[in-house]
Design brief:
By secondary structure, the protein is an alpha+beta fold. It has helices at residues 12-21, 56-66, 72-85, 89-95, 101-120, 146-160, 186-192, 201-207, 212-215, and strands at 3-6, 26-31, 36-42, 45-51, 126-131. A hairpin with a 4-residue loop joins strand 2 and strand 3. It is globular. The relative contact order is 0.16. The model has no long low-confidence stretch (mean pLDDT 85).
Length: 216
């Protein structure tokens, strides 16, 4: 039987806990004003996330380029292969030995957690959990402990309240001048160098070597 309702009545934290403790397998569809999210679960743990608003392949590729793991030519070739072969971008990178499996897994997991954190901030929306079989990805298996994601998500949301109203994860900035000598700390310098009039705040957080809140 499907579980459905509104986030303002039964919050995301409650939904995730229910799925986790009952070790459910299925798909959770969440729809808000800004996005539609599809979360897949296997035995209560998160196995994948899809966002209608963001083209995840392009986003993943941008992060990999920023981290120096691939170049634009690698990404363009992989995207063309994805169109013809119909397989995930990450799978292509692994099959061609471009990125270590563990490294790619960690980056995808970070993306999933970041997307879930954004949902925690939604004031309203509707959800539907549909119990059904979810095939495991044999080449790039993802299994995020839902309870840990929940705890991390709530912690990050609490930290984000300190910058609420000052920063938006979707904001794209550009440099207007170079900093003067000793004007920025080493962390500020690192973040500043990622501002390129193309990467949004969320992407910069993902590629930063510092924590989410410190970078924010």
């Amino acid at each position: 039987m499907a579980l459905e309702g509104f986030l303002q009545e039964f919050g995301l934290a409650d939904i995730l806990q229910l799925i986790y403790f009952q070790r459910k397998t299925g798909v959770l569809n969440i729809e808000g004003k800004t996005d539609r999210i599809k979360l897949s679960f296997i035995n209560g743990n998160i196995s994948s996330l899809e966002s209608q608003r963001r083209l995840e392949s392009g986003r993943l590729g941008k992060i990999l380029i920023k981290k120096g793991l691939i170049d634009q030519k690698d990404l363009d070739t992989a995207i063309e292969m994805q169109k013809t072969e119909g397989i995930k971008l990450g799978t292509i990178f692994i099959r061609h030995g471009l990125i270590p499996r563990q490294t790619l897994t960690e980056i995808i997991q970070e993306q999933i957690i970041e997307a879930i954190v954004q949902i925690f901030a939604w004031k309203e929306g509707k959800y539907e959990f549909i119990p059904r079989g979810v095939p495991a990805d044999e080449e790039l298996p993802i299994s995020l402990d839902t309870q840990h994601v929940l705890m991390d998500g709530l912690r990050i949301v609490d930290e984000w309240s300190l910058v609420e109203g000052k920063l938006d994860l979707n904001t794209i900035s550009k440099r207007v001048r170079e900093p003067e000598e000793n004007e920025l700390s080493s962390l500020e310098e690192e973040v500043f160098r990622q501002v390129d009039a193309d990467s949004d705040v969320c992407t910069i957080i993902n590629i930063s070597y510092s924590g989410d809140f410190e970078t924010s």
